[in-house]
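User: Structure tokens for this complex, please. No commentary.
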Amino acid sequence: MNYLTEPQRQVEICASAEVLILGGGPSGIAAAITSARSGSKTILLERYGFLGGMGTAAMVTNFCGLHANINGAVQQIVHGIADDILARLENLGGLNAPHPIKGRNGGHDTAAQAYDTAAYKVVADELLKEAGVDIRFHSLAVGVAMSSKSSIDAIVLETKSGRKAIKAEMFIDCSGDADLAFWSGAKVEKGNDDGFIAYPTTMFRIGNVDDDLAHRLGRPNLNELIIKHGDNYNLPRKTGIINSQAHKGEWRANLTQISRRDGSPIDGSNWDDLSFAEAEGRRQVLEYHKFLKECVPGFQNSYLLETAAQVGIRETRRIIGSYVLTEGDVLGCVDFDDAIGCNGWPLEQHLKGAAKWTFLGGRGYHQIPYGSLIPIGVDNLLVAGRCASATPEGQSSLRVSGPCFVMGQAAGTAANIAIDTKTRPAAINSQELQSRLRNNGVFLG
Ligand SMILES: Cc1cc2nc3c(=O)[nH]c(=O)nc-3n(C[C@H](O)[C@H](O)[C@H](O)COP(=O)(O)OP(=O)(O)OC[C@H]3O[C@@H](n4cnc5c(N)ncnc54)[C@H](O)[C@@H]3O)c2cc1C
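Assistant:
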């Protein structure tokens, strides 16, 4: 390998905060609003020019994990900041009513809720600004400066105005990729024991769909139609999801499966893989849309409305925290003494060629432990979202928007308690945390 030696240079410390949050996806949004509302001086860094993370940049357009099936009744179990977001989306006409998700293999039915990405971006802007968060868009974090082996001093970022640093007392990693945890030396892992990572998907939206026909005959028969006609197309994924959006004739498609040339999953924390994945994703979108038009009722006169700004990444690095949430915890509806909220989304594993769903039975939800947000090795860091501490199977459930809101709200609250009590997040009183969360609308189970 060839190397270029960079000349030593000074980096401007352009700001300081009590709580510095990396990433503006669902976990970062909830963490930032909560932290600022708690009274901490809060800055959020986001590489794009808008918030929402995969929910907007990758055009997910659907909140999963807000609901659970409790004793036969599908109910919303994620509240707190999530309620504020839902209410604002509703006001803007950017929210669908919850739609049913059919349980399989003895597991319970549940629900999900579609939204408009444009509305979500605006709602997130408003809520963060009103809370007093200093949002710094177009800020690509690239590293950390440590004040000791176990304490972060500042995040280093690249901007159009050059390289900068921002200092803080407490840091929350909501990057989805555990960037901050990785750079600061916390324990992280990627994929399962064989290195397998959940396959990414390039999402797309379709216009001029015949809603009635597509709901009656297209959506329910999609997977059978892929099997029946798939050989005539190049469709790497044999099970998919299509659904209508808030506005007439607009549908979203979660169909593609993006792999490297050797068929293994793209690693969304690898620059080469990411670059390759973008054009490959759009190539697949064209092929899947051709199949929809030619084979799926309701799509004959449709057109391709939009492809996502980036390939949708489900999983990269996860921290190995003080507790690692497992498949058994999710499916066994397990309770934790340090619970910060609940999740009832099924395991949703994106394996080669198909997504495998395992629905919860029993009570229909498990509690999320605070220990999954606590990294090992770094004292002034919390981690929330899809890179929190879980096995790959546990993460396949915990990563969706609902539990990300829960984890973000808990991390923002915990950071504030840690600052007020001059304690490490790992050492705060979890009953104090739970009481503050409950008072702010969180359902703890
Ligand atoms: C194709 C696909 C379909 C999905 N479908 C659904 C669904 O229907 N419903 C659902 O609820 N969930 C769904 N999910 C899962 C869900 O969207 C994500 O797991 C969730 O958004 C994770 O939230 P997060 O806050 O942890 O991270 P992310 O949403 O990934 O957000 C991370 C944020 O950090 C920013 N960031 C990252 N690194 C840096 C850096 N170095 N510097 C500055 N900024 C940075 C990113 O730009 C991003 O805004 C889907 C995911 C994918 C990929």
